[in-house]
Sequence to fold (452 residues):
Amino acid sequence: MGKNKNIFKTDYLIIGNSAAGLSAAENIRKNDKNRAISVLTREKYSNYSKPLIPYYLAGSLDPGSLYFKKRNFYTENSIDLKTSENVVFVSSSDNIVLTESGSQYLYNKLLIASGGRPIMPQIKVIEKTGKSYSLGEAMNSVNGIFTLTTLDDAIRIRKHINEYSVKTASILGGGLIGLKAAEALLELHLSINVIELSDKLLSASFDKTASDIFSEVIKASGSSIYCGQTIDEIYVENNSITAYKLSSGKKITSNLLIVAVGVLPDVEYLKNSEIKTDGGIITDCSMKTSAGNIYAAGDVVKSQDVLSASERNMAIWPIAVKQGAVAGANMSGASAAYSGGFLMNSVEILGMPVISLGLSSIDNEDSTQDLKVYKAYDMGRKIYRKIVIRQNRIIGAILIGAIERAGIYCGLINNNVDVAEIGQNIVKEDFGLIQLPADYRKHLVVGEGIEV
Ligand SMILES: Cc1cc2nc3c(=O)[nH]c(=O)nc-3n(C[C@H](O)[C@H](O)[C@H](O)COP(=O)(O)OP(=O)(O)OC[C@H]3O[C@@H](n4cnc5c(N)ncnc54)[C@H](O)[C@@H]3O)c2cc1C
Fold:
């Protein structure tokens, strides 16, 4: 820990300057115009949108376009932003947060919105000299091995591609972040190798058909997909990655590897606090943790998946924003509840857009659970639509190619609408408002409305 012993006092302290943290800050300010709000981030930037990082990597957005809050957001809301402050300890009994620089922050209410950290698989990294170490150690020292979860990661990858004139890149992990990386690298006309342990891409959301359609498009660009495989060993020479060996034994030459096997709630620095964690911070529906005046929101928490009725980590932007808003309201004296959410993904590879919602990987009908699966293909146009229905309610959807109606499906899931009378029409490309149950249509016109 550094020597710089600054002591700051604040009313509302927020760890995290992203989707959840800033949504909370904004909602606190709505209810409490006067008390002090401080936001800590270990990064050096004001704010930026993580979902836009791949567009920066692809060269289609400059760093200045990545902000999701106006430049004057902090001054307008009287928020004291402290960048490059890495929190290393939370003393929940003393209401104190300590940072790596040695600063202490005393708070009345604390929000933990520090997101997740990339998972590091156990892979042996071997130097030409015979020396070996773990992938985790290599991340900090070996040229050409990266994760893609922060803007700094994207800046480093871009620099590496330019400096070493990289023509082929490898991505370990065919999940959301892996595919987002693929999207960016294909835009840069690189050829890619995607290595995925499961038998399909985006395994949490795709079925085999969706994965095959995507794989075909990627392969047609001269790239390769290795499903059902992982990397056993990585080879390093002169401090740079040169090649790796797949579990099949195949050796692949590569000077760029992006490790994207998932993100886990980053709760390491909370282990000596009273905050209960179990693969993520546990909160109640007001987003309050087990420690009285401490709240948590976003990727760092475990929360209710309304479709699978389970508690899990759901690392997506809209959920982080919603949870942050609920936490901020409750921290500042209002009353709000988070009632759970469901996963959504959206990726576009080589001009082929895909959206998946909820429990979309379910592929088998099951009469005991009243589970139906409707599918529609147009392989010529590379259009695939699938809707999963349980007890007459939509619980999952995959839309490839024609994604325009995603908002309607999303609304039907959110509002738990009975779609029994729609039948097979629900999966048709021209499915729209006219086929919706009359009372729901009316609700759309005169009621809250949903984005369509
Ligand atoms: C490449 C990529 C693409 C994505 N694309 C999509 C998408 O298309 N759609 C979608 O819904 N979601 C997407 N996501 C996921 C989405 O970005 C996250 O769900 C969302 O950012 C979570 O917000 P958060 O506020 O919980 O945490 P984060 O956005 O992870 O922010 C965490 C904040 O906490 C700070 N922090 C962390 N630890 C500390 C510490 N110890 N001390 C001080 N500060 C700390 C960080 O600096 C940061 O400010 C994507 C993610 C990535 C990485």
Summary: The pocket of flavin-adenine dinucleotide is lined by residues 15-21, 40-43, 50-51, 53-54, 85-87, 113-116, 148-149, 177, 180, 266, 269, 298-299, 315-318, 320, 346 (CB under 6 Å). The chain has three domains: 7-45+68-116+265-331, 124-261, 362-446. The longest strand covers residues 371-378.
